Inverse folding.
């Protein structure tokens, strides 16, 4: 039986060959998509191009070429209404220091059509944020929570977050991940979460897009990526035995070497005498970054 | 859009306090002016004129120039330091938040223009109110002449603001002071350009006076004749202001389409 149109996965975000050239940095033909109802982890080290990509998705900056689609529609021009369904959390708060929760509510309820005042104050209460205190006096964690409260109070279907957990202590980070989990309980809710803290993404992400030096180096289902990649421990002398098509990167140590492989099952079969361990997202990211650097040198 | 206007007004809280004090101050000075016209020194000067006695030029000057000076204070204070909004947005990195809102760049820009010119509008209304009371109680200047002065002054302030917004958009955050200086220079250059013939005439007349061919006093008087023009032909600066505001908005939108992240 063929797939009907409603069975097909809808993409909430789609980027096709997007280019943005700053001269000293270039986002090079970036293509990826985020399916509806998923949590997509956008991984990359600082300066890899995560923020630029997010700015392009939100049309905060203009792209040089390529196509960016939000909810199936091309962003740009007079498509600002598309952002009505997008909640955004940046790494820095962005609200003026003198503004209180009440001020922000007054501003936002006159901007978003679906602004839910009661929900906003409920979130402030839930996050223990005082509504009459100037947000300039908030801690970093409180500022992030304030942004999340704003992002969730206009019934957004998509949350776009740029490094929301960086600089936060593990307890607050866990709290925030719980909030994100609650958000994606509804089927049509989607999250694009950029971070270089891969442990957070391992906890929550369904999909992973990995960017380095302005290029997408890896993307796909997180569990599949973790399942496919592995760390092969071997002697330095045995390195040459490992098929180059399997190697993502190699790290030589004093007495041996660790090889990151891109097909764990094949490696298991081919090298039964070597130790094969599962790789964490962070390790995979490091191997890809180092391999990319080695190639460019 | 209304939300951004409210946010801008919140940013201008301190300035609005000064604005309120200024309105009160102008009203006090206007009351003093009215009292002086009816019972004080200005009344005495008026009597001298009526009686045919010679009033000194300084006295006549005071009578003519005091009202325009304090009238212009209100719209000037209303929008004078409006680059503060740009500075406050820059300090808070608000541009990124603004860019993520469901409002297009031209609408966000329009909100900024509306905030600034609404404040100027409130200033003009306050001015008209004071002018109405003054012209009714003191017979020195007519309501029409006062309106001419108010609209001319407000137009100059509006043109300054339009240039300042344009330069703030063009130069980006952190260059608000430069934008203010540039808008003053542009305004000055525009004035010189529009009255180029007059300035040439005055310069020639002064040169002739230096050579002893004509009287220098005549040429100096011409420097101030534009004040009289403004009293009776206020529609000229008002039209100029409208053209400058529209051009400034159009250019700012064009700049924003290429260069984002300022507003």
């Amino acid at each position: 039986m063929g797939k009907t149109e409603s069975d097909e996965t809808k993409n909430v975000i789609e980027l096709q060959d997007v280019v943005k050239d700053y001269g000293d940095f270039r986002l090079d033909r970036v293509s990826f998509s985020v399916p509806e109802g998923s949590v997509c982890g956008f991984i990359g080290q600082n300066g890899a191009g995560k923020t630029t990509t997010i700015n392009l998705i939100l049309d905060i900056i203009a792209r040089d070429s390529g196509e960016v689609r939000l909810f199936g529609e091309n962003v740009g021009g007079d498509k600002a209404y598309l952002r009505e369904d997008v909640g955004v959390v940046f790494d820095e708060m962005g609200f003026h220091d003198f503004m209180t929760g009440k001020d922000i509510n007054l501003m936002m309820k006159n901007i978003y059509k679906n602004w839910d005042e009661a929900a906003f104050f409920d979130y402030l209460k839930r996050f223990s944020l005082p509504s009459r205190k100037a947000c300039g006096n908030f801690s970093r964690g409180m500022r992030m929570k304030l942004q999340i409260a704003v992002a969730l109070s206009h019934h957004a279907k998509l949350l776009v977050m740029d490094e929301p957990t960086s600089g936060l202590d593990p307890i607050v980070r866990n709290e925030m991940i719980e909030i994100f989990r609650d958000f994606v309980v509804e089927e049509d809710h989607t999250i694009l979460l950029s971070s270089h803290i891969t442990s957070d993404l391992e906890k929550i992400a369904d999909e992973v897009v990995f960017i380095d030096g302005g290029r997408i180096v890896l993307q796909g289902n997180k569990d599949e990526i973790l399942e496919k990649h592995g760390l092969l421990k071997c002697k330095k002398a045995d390195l040459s035995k490992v098929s180059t098509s399997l190697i993502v990167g190699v790290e030589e140590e004093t007495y041996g070497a660790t090889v990151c492989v891109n097909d764990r099952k094949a490696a298991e079969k081919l090298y039964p005498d070597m130790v094969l361990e599962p790789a964490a997202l962070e390790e995979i990211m490091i191997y890809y970054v180092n391999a990319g650097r080695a190639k460019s040198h | 859009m209304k939300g951004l206007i409210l946010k801008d007004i919140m940013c201008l809280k301190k300035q609005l306090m000064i604005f309120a004090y200024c309105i009160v101050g102008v009203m006090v000075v206007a009351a003093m002016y009215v009292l002086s016209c009816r019972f004080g020194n200005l009344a005495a000067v008026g009597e001298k004129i009526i009686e045919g006695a010679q009033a000194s030029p300084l006295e006549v000057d005071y009578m003519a120039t005091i009202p325009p000076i304090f009238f212009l204070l209100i719209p000037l204070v209303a929008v004078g330091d409006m680059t503060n909004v740009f500075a406050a947005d820059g300090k808070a990195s608000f541009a990124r938040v603004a860019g993520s809102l469901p409002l297009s760049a031209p609408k966000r820009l329009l909100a900024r223009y509306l905030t600034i010119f609404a404040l100027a509008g409130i200033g003009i209304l306050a001015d008209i109110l004071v002018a109405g009371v003054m012209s009714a109680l003191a017979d020195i200047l007519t309501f029409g002449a006062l309106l001419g002065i108010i609209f001319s002054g407000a137009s100059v302030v509006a043109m300054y603001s339009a240039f300042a917004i344009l330069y703030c958009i063009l130069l980006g955050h952190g260059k608000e002071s430069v934008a203010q200086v540039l808008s003053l220079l542009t305004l000055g250059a525009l004035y010189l350009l529009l009255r180029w013939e007059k300035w040439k005439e005055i310069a020639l007349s002064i040169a002739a006076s230096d050579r002893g061919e004509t009287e220098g006093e005549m040429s100096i008087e011409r420097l101030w004749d534009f004040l009289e023009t403004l009293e009776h032909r206020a529609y000229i600066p008002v039209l100029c202001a409208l053209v400058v505001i529209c051009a400034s908005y159009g250019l700012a939108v064009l700049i924003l389409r290429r260069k984002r992240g300022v507003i």
About this structure: The first helix of chain A runs from residue 50 to 57. The interface with chain B takes residues 55, 58-62, 78, 80-84, 86, 88, 90, 92-99, 103, 106-113, 160 of chain A (CB under 8 Å). The CA atoms of residues 47 and 246 of chain A lie 28 Å apart. The first strand of chain A starts at residue 11 and ends at 21.
